[in-house]
Amino acid sequence: MSKPVIKQQTISSRLDRNIAALLERRRQKAATATLQEKAAAAITRFAGSMIFVYIHALVFGGWIVINVGLLPILPAFDPSMVVLAMVASVEAIFISTFVMISQNRMAEADDKRADLNLQISLLAEHETTQLLSIVTAIAEKFGLDLAQKQEIAELQEDVTPEGVLDTIDKISGGANGRSEGRGPEGNV
Q1: Which of 85, 90, 95, 47 is nearest to 63 (CA)?
Q2: Quick check: is 145 in a domain?
């Protein structure tokens, strides 16, 4: 006897398609990563795990216990702990470098997502503007009085990214990033 196939309920097939497209894009991005990028990501993932913490607690703890003489069965090999400090410092340099490499990749992905969000928002704004124009035309055709004609006319204007960026720069005080009427720390 065969098991019945249970179809999972979703919000829409478009949502399913979009999720599948995003997951496929992530898979493609992971597949095209260089060996160096994959190594940096793996090292960063490991360095951010509890296993890494446990290993370091054991190794550094054992190193300290042996070298302060609490474990007399082994001779002290670094009584001044200089070698331990050097090992920890070199390890910190490399781990911070790998973390920065991973953060750069994440920042690049964030920039791409922000660009995509901007494009979708601009498209939605343009479509909304067009819909408002159509609804206004229909209302005028039927002779309906629109009380907010000035506001509707304003909303029907296309918004350009350049216009928005120029307005943000103007309000925030231009290229220096300081708002008008604010001090050096940005406080009123």
Answers
A1: 85
A2: yes
What is the total count of domains within the chain? 1
Identify the domain containing residue 124 by its residue range: 33-174
Does residue 185 have a pLDDT over 50? Answer: no
Q: Write out the DSSP string of 84-147.
A: HHHHHHHHHHHHHHHHHHHHHHHHHHHHHHHHHHHHHHHHHHHHHHHHHHHHHHHHHHTT---T
pLDDT in tens, 140-151: 888 877 777 777
Residue 156 identity (one-letter amino acid) = Q
User: Is pLDDT of 79 > 70?
Assistant: yes
Q: Report yes or no on 80 lying in a domain.
A: yes
77 vs 69: CA distance, rounded Å: 10
CB 41 within 8 A of CB 105: yes
Q: Which two tokens stand for residue 103?
A: 């953060």
In-domain check, residue 179: no
User: Rounded to two decimals, what is the model's pTM?
Assistant: 0.63
Give the whole-number percent of the chain exceeding pLDDT 70. 86
Asked whether residue 58 is assigned to any structural domain, the reply reads yes
